[in-house]
Amino acid sequence: MSDLKRRTFFKLGLAGVTLSIFKPSRAGELLEESTMRVQKSEPIVISTWKHGLEANDEAWKVISSGGAALDAVENGVKVTEADITNRSVGIGGRPDSDGHVTLDACIMDHNSKCGAVACLEGIDHPISVARKVMEETPHVMLVGDGAREFALEKGFNKTKTPLKEVKKDWKDWKKEEKDKLKNPVINHENHDTIGMLALDINGNLSGSCTTSGWGYKLPGRVGDSPIIGAGLFVDNEIGAACATGMGEAVIRIAGSHTVVELMRQGNSPQKACEIAVERIIKKHDDLTGLQVGFLALDKFGNVGAHSVYYGFNYAAHTEEGNNLVDASFDRNWD
Ligand code: SD4
User: Could you tell me the residue ranges of all domains in the chain?
Assistant: First the structure.
């Protein structure tokens, strides 16, 4: 089938409606076409939450001028990491229960190369450190002091965290002695982690994911975001997926990898996200506060998104513009 024939419609809609550049995928077709040489693709960048709009703009500069999806997803999420008013990504993030801001990030390209950092403290761009791990070491993941030493060696900036205002919030939190770990306020009103997926004009996919994680988490806690297969997964033959929300639940089902494998089996990105959410629901007796959202992009530019609870949205940038789209969901909060 010609590339042109595949580009049958373009649609950007509200909850439950997928954003499509190509007609929905079928497994056989996907596998068959993945072996064909891709000519030119319609580029697309998608990312989690409203902060994705700004991040997409930066990523779009890269892919709209013919650049690589990998550069797009790194540059894009760096915008969010650099926003010190963001309390869930980058150095403006909330600390753990001891007052340390520890950052998690990962990146993956179209050759299945990947890099990650976890529990990284006082370094301004964890996503770029993750990329250095991918490109300049034989490893996939560096954590804690090792990750920090590596970043400093590579010339990354040191930053003092938490920021003054974040420290004040943390002190108030400690005073209140609320056990927020038992009743997590996560992902409902405070938008969090940014996961970004991009398809470039050469038909290559890449993804990135970066977060300060669960606010006031136990020291040493790492969520799904820096874990390849959980917070992010890319398979250039099929598609890419990322996750936001309660990382523990995402890890339990190897969330992003599961979404990509469901697409490999012939499910559309939308259906794949829905099945993964259903699986999370099935595996947890208590869904109180357990928000998880998946975002997926297939090799042909089809998009899907679905979450456990109402409220998840994502930003999608195509040649038609940059739009915030409400994801479909399984249930309301009440
Ligand atoms: C985590 N998934 O650390 C991340 C954070 C997040 O809603 O997305 N929170 O578990």
Answer: 3-37, 40-331
